[in-house]
């Protein structure tokens, strides 16, 4: 049995991928953020289940239950030897809402919906923005002018306004349709970034060589130029993912996004904002799960940006302070050094 040796292009591709992975793995903050992000998703799915997958938590997010301990949280993180009640979840870790529904189950369902919105919205926006930006940057001329003017029209309209209109039409159809429709109007930023990258890459020698070899425009765009712009696409997608959770939360808070009986973190905050003074846990638990994933995604995005762009150097305060001192020191002649 004979094996085919990898070509030079394959070796180069593997080498480049390994270098990017190595740079990313050296970024401790990004790696920890990615691990926590995956852990949060797995925890939310394992807790209350997803579709046919059952969860280990005994309550669901829609059934009212008799009040326990006045609806207060039963979660305890202080060990008994420190004077606490011990580390335990209790009957209702995050408490209960006004009608007795378990708030832990509602919050975990909101986390699941947030991840679903992140994946679908960012995926649709990334694909559409990449295609529009690639075609505009490659063909230039009137094609570029038309596509970029359409992009400018969408950009000048505030995202929350577009989202409110989209949410009013699709919010009651389910989380999937809301996320997909929002992705269709959130592609403008990545389209401009990809266009700028294509304007630079289309003038490279390997593109001219592909044209001389008779490659079609679509093959040049998607087989030759786009792989070299994948860094810009991935970093831009991470930024869209971070904005997706905030956009969905804001729409649900205003009543234009996910609607009851489905659960959303923004909807939970909106429903319980009047109880902030008397039952603050109804506000703080969903608010924390809004902020944490958004921060983690931003940290992962920063790590991806550094990994794909090795020309960026990390800021060093000590090096910055030492540079003026080194420049201010007079040069010492060779005979004085001896």
Automatic annotation (TrEMBL):
Q: Which CDD domains match?
A: TM_PBP2
Under PROSITE patterns, the record lists: ABC_TM1
Q: Where are the transmembrane segments?
A: 28-50, 115-139, 146-167, 173-194, 225-247, 281-304
Q: Which residues form the ABC transmembrane type-1 domain?
A: 111-301
Q: How does it sit in the membrane?
A: Multi-pass membrane protein
Gene3D superfamilies to which the protein is assigned, alphabetical: MetI-like
Segments carrying the region annotation (Disordered) are 315-338
Q: Name one Pfam family in it.
A: OppC_N
Q: Where in the cell is it found?
A: Cell membrane
Q: What family is this?
A: Belongs to the binding-protein-dependent transport system permease family.
Protein name, UniProt field: ABC transporter permease
Q: Which organism is it from?
A: Agrococcus terreus
Q: What is the lineage of its organism?
A: Bacteria, Bacillati, Actinomycetota, Actinomycetes, Micrococcales
